[in-house]
Amino acid sequence: MSIEIKVPTVGESISEVTLSQWLKQDGDYVEMDENIAELESDKATFELPAEKAGILRIVAQEGDTLEIGALVGRIEEGEAPAGQKDSTEATDAQPEAAQAEAAPSEATAKESNYATGTASPAAAKILREKGIEPAAIDGTGKDGRITKADAEKAQAQKPATKTETPAPPAAAPGSRNERREKMSSLRKTVSRRLVAVKNETAMLTTFNEVNMKPIMDLRAKYKEAFKEKHGVGLGFMSFFAKAVCTALKEWPAVNARIDENEIVYNDFVDISIAVSAPKGLVVPVIRNAESLSLHEIEKEVIALATKARESKLTLEEMTGGTFTITNGGVFGSMMSTPIINAPQSAILGMHNIIERPVAENGQVVIRPMMYVALSYDHRIIDGRESVSFLVRVKQLLEDPARLLLEV
User: Pairing mode, if any, of strands 45-49 and 35-40?
Assistant: First the structure.
């Protein structure tokens, strides 16, 4: 008797997903709860586990867009192939073989050859993400087993593996070739939302500049002690987050949103931080940022950014948010107009730090300056509120002692 594998419900607002990758092949024997495929929504990537042990029969193909409840495949009754059982037994026998004092016997050599090319779970995941077959790797572990370190090193060897496949002929000078790729669910959703924001909000942007020298001096003075005590570095994001939280208390409309015919004001600050992930831009949320210290914010930023890079963010970690901060400066952006992250009403854009001549007390001096931009929905936020909010953020950043004294 076979059972059907269907797309599970992964979130209230998600109606469809993309089958991004099969982790098993058609006809493979799978164990119960073993991950067999990866599903990608507009917000995150999910692993699809097998609901029972048996033989996998694939129905949907990689790249297919599937509605919730759609058929992905089936699992038929069946036992693990003899080779798979033998492989398991060989793996189980490795500790016993490791105790042998003499040179390996003929039987031991056969057992060793059987285990060669077998990857540990952590190594298998890395190789799968890099698109490298375990058979192409020489494992350094016991009996040729591929370790996590082997898989990590294989990343640098990947280009060499590619050279074995004949490269497509180079385009002739003046050629006009083009190629097409199907848009991912994430990219389609981002595109749709960006257009909606432009069409459905009265978006304006106000700019200012911040002298970053006080914060840079403070970081240089205390960064070692800060890291030694809290275990994380002291970055710029925590200062910006604290400044934003203070300014939002004074200008609550910037932390509000429109819900049909009502304006919803929040007495808390959930800061969304834009993070560039392998599959596109994601915006995880730092909850109740107004109650967090600098080191707590830094730890949250690191944790969320790491999960984003590994495609491990949950729906809860990307849902909500009352205000967004995006840092285009890490890519070299000098100035930009960030687009509001709906249904929020404002977004703060950070940019790169450039030493520029500025007038200070009647003298021209060189200072590390950053342009900042606040895009806001004029339906909720008036010009006075938006400009005053950004000026307050600038004031707090240029005199960071205010962040601690709350003045």
Answer: antiparallel
Cβ(126)–Cβ(119) below 8 Å: no
Residue 167 within a domain? no
How large is the average pLDDT for residues 21-34? 89
- In sequence order, what E strands does 7-44 have? 16-22, 29-30, 35-40
Distance between CA 392 and CA 105 in Å, rounded? 76
pTM: 0.66
Which pLDDT tens digit goes with each residue over 125-138? 677 777 787 777 77
With the CA atoms of 138, 141, 146 and 150 taken in that order, what torsion angle do they form, in degrees rounded to the nearest 10? Answer: -70
Within 3-135, strands assigned E span 3-6, 16-22, 29-30, 35-40, 45-49, 54-58, 65-67, 71-76
> Has residue 152 got a pLDDT over 90?
no
Catalytic residue positions?
378, 382
Nearby residues of 314 by Cβ (< 8 Å), 6 or more positions away: 44
Q: Under a CB-based contact definition with an 8 Å cutoff, are residues 167 and 152 in contact?
A: no
Looking at 30, 47, 80, the residue that finishes a domain is 80
Quick one: tokens of 38? Answer: 């990866």
What pLDDT, on a 0 to 100 scale, did the predictor assign at position 151? Answer: 76
**Residue 57 DSSP label:** E
| pLDDT at 163 > cutoff 70 | no
Mean pLDDT across 233-238? 92
What range defines the domain where residue 365 resides? 186-405
How confident is the model at residue 110, as a pLDDT?
A: 35
Whether 203 is in a domain gets the answer yes
